[in-house]
Structures are given as C-alpha cells and as structure tokens.
Specification:
Blueprint lengths: L6 H26 L3 H23 L2 H23 L5 H46 L11 H78 L5 H15 L13 H8 L7 H23 L6 H8 L2 H10 L1
C-alpha cells in the first residue's frame, strides 16, 4: 500500500470523516433518545474507523482499510435491515464504503466493496425481517427520525467534501512528484548522453593521435631509407592531405620558422604536433641530402695505391720508360 503522494492525508480524511459523523450522530442519539439499533449501527461504524486508524498508524494499511470499509458495510447493512430501504442513511453508508475502499486500496478495494454489497443487498432484501427479529427489533421496519437524518446529512456534506479535497490534493501531489521524477530522469539521461559523447570524443582524439604518431614514425623510417627527397615529399604530402585540411602545407618546409608557425596556427590544436612532426622529418631528410652533396671525399693512402696499381697507371709508367 503506497503511503507517499499524499496517501496519508487521504487516510486521515477518510477515517476522520467517519469518526466525526459518527460522534455527531452518537450525541444526537443520546439527546433524542434513540433505540438500541441506532447505537449498534454507530458502534460498527465508529469502532471500525477508530480501530482501522490505529492499524493504519501501525503500517497495516490493507487490514486497516478492510476493517474501515467493512464497518461502513455492516452499519449500512444494519440500517437496511431495520429500515428496509436502500435510500437515505443506508445509501450513504453503502456508498461511503465503496468510496473508502477505492480511495485507499485503489480499484481492487472498490471491486471488493462492490462484491460485498452485491451479496449484502439481496440478503437484506430477503432476510430483513428475520434478522431484525433476531436482533431484538420489531416486525415492522423503523423510521429514522428527521433529527437524526438532519444531523447525518449536515455532518456528512462537509466531512466527505474534505475527503474529496484530500483525494484531489493527493492526486496533485502525485502528479507533481511524478513530474519531478520524470524531469530528474530526463536530466540524468541528458547528462549521461553528454558524458558518453565526451568519452567518445576523447577516445576518438586518442585514437587519432595514435594513428598520427604511427604515420610520422613510418614516414621517418621511409625518409631514413634509400628514398629520394622528392619521394619523401610526395609521401609527406599524402599524409598531410589525409590528416590536415590545410592546402600546400608541405610548401612551408623551406620557409622561415615564423611562416611555418603561422600556417600551423590554422590547424586544430590536436593536429599541430602531428603536422610539425611531418615537417621536421622532411626537413631532416632535406638537410641530410644537402650535407651529402656538399661533402667531398679526401684522398687516402689506400685510394692512391689503388689508383697507382691500376692497369692504366702501369701502362703509362712503361711508356715513360
């Protein structure tokens, strides 16, 4: 049995309504000198409401509601037996039992109360007189005094109005809490989606950086091999075109550091180290080629001996002799 969403207020209004109306009727019965049957019906209603409220406070919600609604059904059945009419007080009591059971236990409680009434009403119609005689009543049905009916109606209207207001407040509280829970769930889903997007972006950046580093490493191995400078430039151009959206980036290889920095600034931050690494590989390969071209081999004793011992040199010596 749910106790949130204002259900506690609904229960208090339900039990309080029966107790308030029953107490007012009990006082009116004492003043007007009503018979035993009136006190018996009030005993069922008041006793069940008081005991049910105590059980509700103990947490036995279903048992409390069952006893509470059952007391109203018993009070209504007694009224029906002694008055032999479904109108007036009988109708109010039986209707109150269904409202109480449905308001506190939902549709299951309402269905159970209706099922009980489907048995009580035909039984009362058939065995009203024997039951009345068994309880010490007269052969003829009694008439409820106008004073008792006036008190009953005047106290029932505001009491059951308060019960309806409590149900409305409970429904509104339930809607507000459900809406708040839905909003919180939506915010959580949005935060989770944002976290997933951030994680995916970070993973993609890491994967991109790893692939870029691998591309620079492969280019470095290729540049250290027998490949020409033009071949290295072509390979570097292909790599840069794949990873960087800057045209003619390879053209800044032989420019100043300031010009290279200006062009690299056009790249995303995460791509700048990669592009700088590619340019450095190409520059190092160009420097190595220029250094090799500028170097001249110095003559050594072994090279002079090989030149002297060659057949051409020996032939020239013989001719001189």
């Amino acid at each position: 049995m749910p106790v949130s969403h204002g259900a506690q207020r609904v229960a208090q209004a339900s039990f309080g309504t029966v107790i308030a109306v029953g107490a007012a009727l009990f006082v009116a019965a004492l003043i007007t000198g009503q018979g035993f049957t009136v006190y018996l019906a009030l005993l069922f209603g008041l006793g069940a409401a008081g005991f049910g409220y105590w059980l509700w406070d103990q947490g036995a919600y279903r048992i409390a509601t069952t006893i509470h609604a059952g007391g109203l059904i018993q009070a209504g059945a007694l009224t029906y037996v002694f008055t032999e009419t479904l109108g007036g007080a009988t109708a109010v009591l039986l209707l109150a039992s269904v409202i109480t059971a449905g308001g506190l236990l939902g549709w299951r409680g309402a269905v159970a109360a209706v099922a009980c009434l489907a048995l009580v009403i035909p039984a009362g119609h058939v065995w009203a007189e024997p039951a009345r005689l068994l309880l010490g009543g007269e052969h003829e049905p009694i008439l409820v005094s106008e004073t008792m009916m006036t008190v009953f109606v005047l106290t029932s209207i505001p009491s059951w109005g308060a019960y309806v207001v409590a149900i409305d407040a409970s429904n509104r509280a339930a809607w507000v809490q459900a809406r708040a829970a839905a909003d919180a769930l939506e915010r959580s889903n949005q935060e989770l989606a944002e976290a997933n997007r951030t994680l995916t972006e970070q993973r993609d950046r890491v994967q991109r950086a790893v692939e870029q580093q691998a591309a620079v490493a492969r280019l470095g191995l290729y540049a250290n091999g027998p490949a020409s400078v033009d071949a290295v430039l072509e390979r570097a151009t292909q790599i840069l075109e794949r990873w960087c959206d800057v045209p003619d980036l390879i053209g800044v290889v032989h420019t100043s550091i300031r010009e290279q920095a200006e062009l690299l600034e056009r790249l995303p931050v995460e791509d700048r180290p990669f592009a700088r690494g590619v340019l450095q590989v190409v520059q190092m390969r160009s420097v190595r080629t220029e250094t090799s071209a500028d170097e001249q081999p110095e003559p050594t004793a072994a090279s002079e001996y090989r030149a002297f011992a060659s057949p051409t040199s020996l032939g020239r010596v013989d001719a001189d002799v």
